[in-house]
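Predict the 3D structure for this chain.
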Amino acid sequence: MLRKRIVALLPLRGGLVVQSFGFARHLPVGRLDIAVDFLDEWGVDEIVAVDIDAGNSGQIADLRAVERAARKCRVPFAVGGGVSTVEGARRLLASGADKVVVRTAVAANPAFAGELGEHFGDQCVVAAVDLAPDEAGVHRLVPTPGSILPPDPLAAIAALKRSGAGEVLLQNRKADGSRAGLEFPFLDGAPDPGLPVIVASGAGRPEHVAAMLRLRAVAAVAIGNLLSHTEHSVTHVKSFLRRAGCDVRLDTNFDYAAVDADAAGRPLPARPKAPAR
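Done. Predicted structure below.
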């Protein structure tokens, strides 16, 4: 069995990495290459960068920014935003991305995932799906222009698998930036979908991540704002997961086993020792 993964999710706006809140409000963090460099050093398993501006304008992500970031990245690096053609995907991969993230184009034409897979291998194709609970609390796909995917998330995942996607990234629009927890109730008790499923949006504490990684259907959790605190964040989350019985990679020298955390899951400074008497 493959180890569960912690993926850093980096939304981009105006050429900068941002913190996202409800997919509507964004706070700047910094340059993509610097964020990638630090997250790579801190021990994250993969990095996903999605250019929101490019997706809205129909253009692909800034190739020069991708190239600069890829030079600093030693873990799998996926990039999305406006990918709608094989040539667009080729240009991103040629700039250093290991995978491409595609949302609107595969929703309108799921066969596009298979087309990309035929050219570059299905391991390079991450199909992104945005979800939100309806008035009854049932999670459904957020409509995108021309989408023909079924509104039921599990049915959509199955359709994307048949179409040739290598992975699926599920994002909960309502929970984005809330830090209230990852809400994907339809995955509780769901069987292995036959391809890696990454869930994102809402992680505020390591416990939230552990709850998802215990599910058979979940291969990875993508985290954004929670990893923006300090250089300790990735290791602290992974240490908690290892202690909670989740099989994740942890190859740092310091395991945070004796470090307390605050209400947001951030490591607290070590308590000073009492003076000797």
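The radius of gyration is 18 Å.
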